[in-house]
């Protein structure tokens, strides 16, 4: 059976093969299809050394593209015979999905005759790249987006801020990138959090950030491929990049440095000071101007409460707002940010810890610590993206003997089989399925310093 990933709704084998040459035109029946035709014609250039010709003139022995209103927005058919290839979709997005399936079928210059009908199960099909622990230049980010596009994923979740570096230009706060994007060195090999004296550092400053121009360019590149970019500004934890640049945002107000090793910092944004919320709103204001996505990811994971417990401003906020504890202070923080996002026409998405201390029904939960936290959220009526670490963390080792076969990485092992084992609907009633928007694979990059290594970890498990 011809291999198309993800597996289409139906695939029927035909007889013979279509031979594709540099003379095979891509025929578009309407102007709307021009961009997706050009993307396909260019993507297969490496096979022929030059792109195929895109034309409006009907032709034999062609790849012909059509729109059909009876098909859904993401639904297509692909028909390959010895004589010609026809892709029909409910929208230009769907036609591009048909062309991606076609790309996957090309074997040198031959395509097996086949009839494919396909539409996706989930509306949200995502992949996350952590561009903060290590920085990947814009050209690499586009290659990552190409990998998503080939597999018909439709969301790129871009993790842009961390303890180890702030990676997005914010005009109002220039020190975020001048200071917050640079760490003075990086730990070598696997970080030992139990005994700092065993860690070695490389002594080399490390930095990088995306200008607002880079970001506009990447968002547009993704949009042409029907991929929405969801930015993540992780808060109130994972904020040392910002704290190093603007120490007044922290509870202690001084002594912060961009982190040079991995782990979870106890230094987080102060939830007591009003200036913290002004900062968050101003940053998000610029983020909203760059990213048209309805969902805006504000992290919310791994926020230790140590500083809040000893901070007069945070304790005063707890008293004044009648909060029971620091967990509820985080809930207060998230609710405030969510209200601001709603006032600006957007919706909040966060990691599953945002449920601690209570979260509104409208928040979207990204379940990572445990699938069944997502299940519980879906039962309560929240919308959920499933990305449980034991199925979806693509930085985990790919072999059971990574010390022999792989570069250094997390000690956990995620096999291909285990990726496939995820059943996002497990323990849900059919009436609750609708709250599972979809699934996502995450590429965290503590131990991934270059894009070749990103690709090695991403494929084949993301596919
Ligand atoms: C996470 O892995 N901290 C979301
Ligand atoms: Zn505080």
Describe the protein's architecture and organization.
The structure is a single chain. 46% of the residues are buried. This protein has helices spanning 34-43, 45-48, 92-105, 138-150, 175-178, 212-224, 240-245, 274-290, 306-310, 312-320, 326-343, 371-379, 389-392, 402-405, 416-420, 451-458; strands spanning 10-19, 26-28, 54-55, 63-67, 76-80, 85-89, 110-118, 124-130, 155-159, 161-162, 165-166, 187-188, 200-201, 228-235, 295-299, 347-351, 364-367, 383-386, 436-443. The strands form four sheets. An eight-stranded parallel barrel has the order 8-9-14-15-16-17-18-19, surrounded by six helices. By secondary structure, it is of the alpha/beta class. 31% of the residues lie in helices and 20% in strands. The site of zinc ion (ZN) has 8 residues, from α10.
């Amino acid at each position: 059976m011809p291999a198309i990933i993800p597996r289409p709704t139906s695939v029927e084998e035909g007889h013979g093969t279509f031979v594709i040459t540099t003379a095979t035109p891509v025929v578009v029946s309407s102007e709307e299809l021009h961009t997706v035709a050009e993307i396909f014609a260019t993507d297969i250039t490496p096979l022929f050394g030059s792109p195929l010709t895109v034309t409006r003139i009907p032709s034999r022995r062609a790849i012909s593209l059509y729109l059909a209103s009876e098909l859904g927005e993401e639904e297509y058919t692909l028909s390959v015979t010895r004589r010609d290839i026809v892709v029909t979709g409910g929208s230009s997005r769907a036609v591009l999905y048909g062309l991606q399936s076609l790309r996957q079928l090309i074997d040198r210059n031959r395509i097996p005759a086949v009839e494919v009908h396909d539409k996706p199960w989930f509306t949200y099909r995502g992949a996350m790249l952590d561009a903060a622990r290590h920085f990947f230049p814009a050209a690499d980010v586009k290659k990552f987006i190409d990998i998503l596009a080939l597999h018909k994923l439709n969301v790129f979740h871009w993790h842009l801020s961390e303890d180890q570096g702030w990676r997005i230009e914010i005009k109002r706060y220039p020190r975020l990138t001048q200071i917050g994007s640079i760490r003075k060195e990086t730990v070598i090999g696997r970080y030992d959090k139990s005994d700092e004296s065993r860690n070695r550092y490389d002594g080399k400053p490390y930095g990088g950030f995306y200008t607002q121009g880079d970001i506009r360019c990447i968002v547009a590149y993704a949009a042409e491929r029907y991929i929405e970019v969801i930015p993540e500004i992780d808060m109130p934890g994972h904020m040392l990049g910002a704290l190093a640049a603007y120490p007044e945002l922290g509870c202690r107000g001084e002594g912060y440095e961009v982190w040079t090793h991995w782990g979870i910092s106890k230094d987080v944004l102060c939830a007591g000071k009003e200036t913290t919320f002004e900062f968050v709103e101003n940053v998000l204001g610029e983020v909203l101007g760059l990213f048209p996505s309805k969902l805006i990811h504000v992290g919310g994971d791994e926020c230790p409460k140590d500083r809040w417990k000893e901070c007069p401003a945070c304790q005063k906020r707890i008293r004044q707002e009648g909060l029971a504890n620091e967990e509820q202070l985080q809930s207060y923080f998230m609710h405030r940010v969510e209200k601001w996002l709603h006032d600006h026409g957007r919706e909040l998405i966060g990691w599953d810890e945002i449920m601690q201390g209570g979260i509104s029904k409208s928040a979207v939960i990204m379940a990572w610590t445990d699938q069944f936290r997502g299940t519980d959220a879906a039962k309560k009526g929240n919308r959920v993206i499933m990305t449980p670490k034991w199925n979806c963390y693509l930085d985990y080792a790919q072999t059971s003997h990574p010390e022999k076969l792989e570069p250094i990485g997390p000690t956990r092992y995620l096999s291909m089989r285990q990726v496939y084992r995820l059943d996002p609907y497990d323990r849900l009633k059919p009436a609750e399925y609708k709250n599972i928007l979809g699934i996502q694979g995450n590429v965290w990059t503590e131990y991934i310093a270059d894009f070749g290594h990103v690709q090695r970890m991403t494929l084949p498990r993301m596919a």
